[in-house]
Amino acid sequence: MHNDHANARISVSQAKPHDTQAVMDLLVGTARWLQSQGSTQWSALLAGDDHHNVAGHIEKGELFLFRDGNTLAGIVLLMQVPGDWDHNLWGADGHESVVYLHRLAINRDYSGQGLGADIVHWAENGVSFPGKTVMRLDCIASNPKLNAFYSGLGYTFKGTSPSGFCLYEKQLPQR
Hints:
Layout: E1 11-14, H1 20-36, H2 54-59, E2 63-68, E3 71-79, H3 84-90, E4 98-106, H4 115-125, E5 134-140, H5 144-152, E6 156-160, E7 165-171
Parallel strand pairs: 4-5
Antiparallel strand pairs: 1-2, 2-3, 3-4, 5-7, 6-7
């Protein structure tokens, strides 16, 4: 990590196994909020299905916590090796120089304060991954606000998957 803060108030650290429950609580809370907005996104979490294997990503050091003091304000998952999901969306080739951003989630008490953008900027600049030059992410096509968020952060729209996910990527700063 080059920077242990996302902004003046929010500190950053890699999640540890003892953080798993707090991370799951944040993800489930986000899924409940999405459901209240009419979205089925992340709804498997509400049924107790963590098919993204949060604990496994924590063990690999891929999940980052954003805290305001002792309060978990947000998380992001940064994967240097694509998962099956990424292969399904992006195809079999061209993953060597890519970091995948997944599971950006914000504690609702911090929504509307620019923390999501701060976390994405930190993911691009606050940590480096040797040999990685591109950040990729996907989001559900039916959420225009989320798509505008990523476009507004300089991500280039690369297309929509047959399963209805918009694909975005951005060149990372070279270190």
